[in-house]
Structure formats: structure tokens, C-alpha cells
Amino acid sequence: MHEMLDTLAYYFTFPFVRNALIVGVLVSLCAALLGVVLVLRRLSFIGDGLSHVAFGAMAVATVMGLSNNMLLILPVTIICSITLMQRQRDKQVQGDAKIAMLSVGSLAAGYILFNRFPPKGGNVSGDVCTTLFGSTSILTLSQNEVWLSLVLSIAVCLIYIVFYNIIFSLTFDEEFAASQGINTKAYNVFIASIIATVISLAMNLVGSLLISALLVFPVVSAMRVCKSFRGVVICSAVFSAVCAAGGIVISILLGTPVGATIVASDAIGFALFSLIGKLKGI
Amino acid sequence: MPDNTLLKAENLSIGYGGVSLVEGVNFSVSKGDYLFILGENGSGKTTLMKTLLGLIPPIDGKISFEGGLKKYGIGYLPQQSAAQKNFPATVSEVVLSGTLRRGSGLFINKEKKKRALYNMQRLKIDNIKNHSYKELSGGQQQRVLLARALCAADNMLLLDEPASGLDIFITKELYEIVDDLNKSGMTIIMISHDMSAAVKYAKSVLHISKEPSFFSCVSDYKAFLETRKGEYAYA
Amino acid sequence: MKKTFALVCAIVIALYATIVPAQEDKYEGPNSMLNLAAKDYLDVPPFEEPLIIQHDLSRLSSTMAYAQLYDMLCNAENYVGSAVKLKGPYMPYQSEAGELMHFVLVYDMQGCCELALEMLPTRGANIEYPEMNTEIEAEGLFDICNDDGVRFVALRINRINIVGQD
Q1: C30-164 maps to which CATH number?
Q2: Does A162 touch chain B (CB under 8 A)?
Q3: Where are the extended beta strands (E) located within chain C?
């Protein structure tokens, strides 16, 4: 145990470990905050769909040789997010199938692109597996990526705090909010954009396939234990941050893939909270 | 009485996407009125409601708001969705969301909190204000939503089939509460298919249908129903 | 409104796509950052032993070792001259010019990605390389080299330790 703490202290001297923890905690926190909106609107699957679109966009960006992937990933994911969230309102059943097609289609297209136009000096299956599962991406962030993640995460948190009451109203009862004259269309576009941004960022953290976990696990766990909306929001954020930090630490100690370890921590946390919830009788 | 008019619909045509469902609707609501909007399913009651609330624009005609009532100032009690019944929120949080209005700012200040508390006390739910919404009974949840609607109301409430899904006793209780509110000065528009309730509580009735809609005071409506006894399931 | 937005995005993307990484200029640095007087990148005298290892990747978990080597490859300037120890499979590689290069690999925990660090013997070192994929340990000094305008990183070694059979 002592030895492990010593190793950990030694690892913390590495700059990329510190970066990983900072970015990991912030991004997972934002994902949890937005996950509250998605889960309570019964739109959880959109998180998964969007992450696959982000993967496809990233493949295209790599093939095009863009200096910064985000320049393509962000606009594409944002546009898809806005479209998907609108479609959900209008045509329930049809929207479902369309999301599935778009999601899997992007995944396949992305993989084919990577194979046809392998990035220079790249290892195709390695790159794909890193992007999908996020094996070490969070530990190999460039300084630019760290700054971008930091700035966007802080922006998302601030926006959430400022628009907190509107977010509650929109999530609980959108029609009622509209009847009060609140511009629900504009806010929905706004929220969809922010969700897309966080999903694009989170791809670095846990990889495309596991982003849903970051969006969903904290919220569902918090709902087992908290009964107020504010409680759920705060609890999800803290849960997510703790599990992300814990997951990163465990993975560097044990040599396990970072993304999957974070998700495993989330799952364990969920089991724990479910137990607590049952004991509390909620 | 023209001075007391709060809402006036003139030659209103309502519908979606340019296609009108009902045309030529004319009615007005005065202060202290209790209007029932009746009609069969699909007759356009919901569309009319959405048009009055400003959720969809009228295809033709005009809606005017006067006497202290502004557009978006109608307190709305919608039908509950399944998702809401299990939503994690306290009663307090739900009611407070009714105090947010276009232009009233993004934050909840003391005044809004006071307004919310007042309305919760009015409906006798202030003792459960920190309880979880999803643990309440159907009737209690309706009262919470009604308190929210009161917070959002300038001086008029619009209730959409509030009794659907509730048992007879809770329904009666709800109607009594609404009637009390009306007696203390709140103007009520109630959307319903419950004609017996209309006859009992309403002061005026608007019956929406494809043939010219019927708008009048409730005694005329009773006579109207008598003449159409065979067509409506009301004896 | 949405069409305009999509059009604007498309234009922005097209603009940025044309700012593809510029032509890489020829590297004007010295042949070896360790020994600035080196006549070519191979001309580096042996270093003094025993080395005090500053970065021991053989002790780190696979996740950390991979991340650390990645950082060294990306931010090489921070590591020039530091004593590094690596453990991993040995991999020879024949370049198009017919030159035989020697690498030690570091795999990530899933085994699907690997990073390679080239090993360059110091002047006069006579190293017997084992079979491909044999586990070896290499201790040496991290260096940035220049081969006719091409910049690359390498580990200067006096010798290698063969640790295991394939």
C-alpha cells in the first residue's frame, strides 16, 4: 500500500499525468451536467449516436490532414446534434431509426476512411482503437488540446450555472416554458451545441464508444440517491469527477486501458449508489 | 363588459402549417370569468389552446390581450407526461419554475420565492415543499402543477383536461379548488370534454366544432344541449 | 437559417483544410544535440558508466511507459541529454536506403499500439543484436539527431542487455 502511494506520488511528477487528471475531471464533470439534461429527456441514445458521428468526422479530418481535428469535428457534431434533438420532438419512431443509421454509418465510414487513407506513419488499428476506446489519448494530450479542453469545460460549467433555472424548466416541462414566452427553440439549439462540444472533447477521454457511459452513469446513480433536481446535478458532477480521477489513477497504476477503467469505476459507483438508494428506501 | 375584457379572439382561424382546422372562432373572456372549452377529440381544442398560449401562431384573425393580461401571461396547467411523473425534483423546484418568465431574468430572487411560497400556501402544499415530486400522489402532483401555473399567471389560468387520469374524488376536489380560485377573482379557462362539469361550474361555454362553434353563457348552453340530446352523451 | 449556417460551416472547413501542415523545412540543427561537435549523427563518443537513470521506463506500468515515451517523442527538447532506460522487444528495420536500423518497442496496455525508439550505438561500440522480438533492456542518453536535414530522436547506447527469449 505504501509502495503504491509512493509510486503514485512519483507518477504525479509527470506533467502528462497532471494534465490527464485536470482534463479528465473537468470533461467528465461537464459530461455529467449535460447528461442530466439528456437522460431526463429520454434522449440518452443521442449521446452514443453523436459520439459515432464525431468519430466519423475525426476520420475525415485525419484523412484531410487538418492541423487540428476539432476544426471539423466540432461543426459536424454540432449540426448533427441540433438536427437530432429537433427530430426527436417531431417524429418519435422515425427519428429513432434515423439516429441509428447515422450513428452506425458514421462509424463504418470512419473506419473505412482510416483504412483507405491511413494517417502518415500511423498504425490504423491502433489509431482506431485509441479513438474508439481511448486507450492512452488522455495521457498523450498536446498542450493545445489541454488548453482547449480547459477553456471549453470552464465555459460549459459557467453556462450551466447561469442558465440553470431555464435548463430545469426546459427539461421538466418544455411546453410550459414555451407558454411563459421562453424561447425554447433557441435554447434547445444552444443546449444541443454544448452537448455536441462536450462529446467531441470527451472522445479524447474515454473514446467514442464509451462516451455514453460518461453521460448516463453519473445521472442515473445520482437519481438513486437524491430527490431534488439540484441534488441530482451536484451529485452527478461530483460522482463523475471522482470516478474519472479514480479511473485514471487505477489505470496508470495497474496498466489497464484508461477509458475502460473510467467506465468500470462509473459502473462500480452506480452499483454502490443503487445499494445506498435501496437502503435509504427511495 | 368591455372594460373587464382580458382576452378577445376575433375571427380566429387556427391550425398547423398553414392548414386551418377551425375557422371563424369568436369569443371573449372577462375578468372573473369561468370559460369551459368543449369539443370532441380532434375538434381543435388543443390547437386553440396552443394558439392562445402563443405556442403556435394563428393562421388568421387576431387575439388581443388587455386589462393587465399580457401575451405569455396565462398560467398554464398542462397534462402530465409519464416522464414528468418520475422526475427528480422537489415540489419547491417545480413551483419556482413557474416564476420564470420571458424577460424576468434568469435567476430566482426573493420576490419570486415569496410568490411561489404564497401560491403553495394557497393550495395547501407548503408543508410538502421539500418533498420529492415523484413520490406524491396524482392529486398532489396536480396541485403542485396548479401552484406553478398560479405563479406564471398574470390573472388568468388555462387548464388542459386536468382531471384526466384522476379518480372521481380527486377530480371533485380539483374542481372545487379551481372553483374557489375563480370565486376569489382568478379568471379560468378550462379545456375539457366533461360536459357535466361544464354545466356545474362554467359561466360561459365555447364549444368547438367544424360547424360554427358555439359560444355563450352556460344557461344557453344547457338549452343548446337539450336540443342536441341525441347527439351528445349527456342527459 | 440552417442552410446559411451549414454553408458558413462548409466554407470555414474548406478554408482550414487548405491550411494543411506546411512543407517541413530542412532541419538546420547539429548532427547530435549531445555532442555538438559530432561530424555526423553516428559520431558520438561513448558515455561514462554507470549511468544515473533519470527516466526508467522499465519500472513503469505499460500505460505510463507508453505515455512517457510518447511525451519524449513529442517534446524531445525537454529530454535531450537525460539518461533513459527502456525495456521491450527488439525490432530491426531495413530502410529504403538499405540501412539497418535498430529499435526498441513499447506497447500500450491493449497491445494494439506501439511506439518505437531508435537505438544508435556510440562510436566504437560493437553491439550484437539478438533475434527480432527478443526482450531487451537498453540504457542510454536521449538525443536529437540530424541526418542530412531530417530531424529524429534516438537513444545513444554503449550496449544492450538481452533479457529474455522471444
Answers
A1: 2.40.50.140
A2: yes
A3: 55-56, 83-94, 100-107, 114-121, 135-147, 150-162
